[in-house]
Design brief:
This protein has 311 residues and is α+β, with helices and mostly antiparallel strands. It contains 7 helices and 12 strands.
């Protein structure tokens, strides 16, 4: 009986170590898969935006030509909320200080044109514009909330690129807006596809992987997440995430202990993280422990019955 208990205990410890390593590999692989897919989704959006920006750069003859250029390529990615070109003050003298043509969705799937630059909307003081003037290439703005009292109000992130004219002079800063709502839907779609992936679920001790993904900006703000499942990070955790780049982190979400598997999204100052409840990670170990305990109990009963019969 003692030998049987020792063998069961050693076997359990070996299996425990194996299952722990398997969980790490499974969720790290899942995180890498989701990170790659969301990077491709964002990359496709960047590519279509670059085409729009290039078209603007080729048609700097007049304000009307700029608007036509913005409108001409919107079909490349109808998921983009809007494209704009924020011009340097007095670049087109007839348009005055603020000329910012914006083609966008509002209450329909069709793009419409609005001139949004004004003293009330002084884009020259916006962070993305100031950074765009100082930059030689494209970049993503920090996430922000835009409010104008219409359906356009909401959380945005903007892909930005400065445009120079034929003389090398900065003409405008172009941008393509995406909403948090769109990016949330895209991430949830990727989650659902990954969750039902037969290869990821192969050999698992329960039917389906239970997790969700979030996107965190460089400041630690959880910008994309399922409703009611935002992740809050401490300053120390943000510092750790910025230093380690990829790794795991334990925290609580709505009072539930969770493990975060995270890594940066390629070419962007954002991090994608797969969030898994600790009890889901430990469930295979619990089931394994129950199995070994059951084997030990059955073995003891058999030994007791054999010994009693021999007496």
């Amino acid at each position: 009986m003692a030998v049987m208990v020792i063998i069961a205990f050693v076997s359990f410890m070996i299996c425990r170590h194996t299952l722990t390593a398997e969980a790490q590999i499974r969720y790290i692989g899942l995180k890498n898969l989701i990170s790659e897919k969301i990077a491709k989704t964002i990359g496709a959006m960047e590519m279509s935006a670059e085409n729009v920006f290039d078209e603007v750069g080729k048609h700097m003859d007049s304000p009307e030509a700029v608007v036509a250029a913005l409108m001409s390529k919107t079909h490349l990615n109808p998921e983009v909320r809007g494209y704009f070109a924020a011009f340097e003050p007095e670049y087109f003298p007839q348009e005055g200080t603020w000329f910012e043509p914006y083609v966008h969705h509002q209450d329909s799937s069709e793009f419409e044109y609005t001139q949004v630059g004004s003293a009330r909307h002084d884009y020259t003081k916006s962070d993305w514009y100031i950074r765009g003037k100082e930059s030689s290439g494209s970049f993503w703005s920090d996430p922000y909330y835009y409010y104008d009292g219409t359906s356009m109000s909401g959380h945005y992130a903007t892909f930005v690129k400065p445009i120079f004219d034929s003389t090398g002079r900065l003409a405008c800063v172009c941008g393509a807006d995406i909403t948090f709502e769109w990016l949330t839907k895209e991430l949830q779609k990727i989650d659902n596809d990954s969750r039902s992936d037969s290869l990821l679920n192969k050999g698992h001790l329960y039917d389906i992987l239970n997790f969700y993904s979030v996107i965190i900006d460089k400041g630690g703000y959880c910008m994309i997440h399922p409703e009611g499942k935002s992740v809050s990070l401490t300053k120390e955790q943000v510092r750790t995430m910025s230093q380690m780049k990829s790794g795991t982190m334990d925290l609580e979400v709505n009072g539930v202990p969770m493990t975060l598997y995270y890594s940066p999204i390629e070419h962007i100052d954002w991090t994608v993280a797969v969030v898994v409840a600790k009890q889901d990670i430990q469930r295979p170990l619990f089931l394994l422990g129950l199995g070994f305990l059951l084997v030990i109990v059955i073995g003891m009963i058999i030994v007791w019955l054999v010994c009693r019969r021999r007496q």
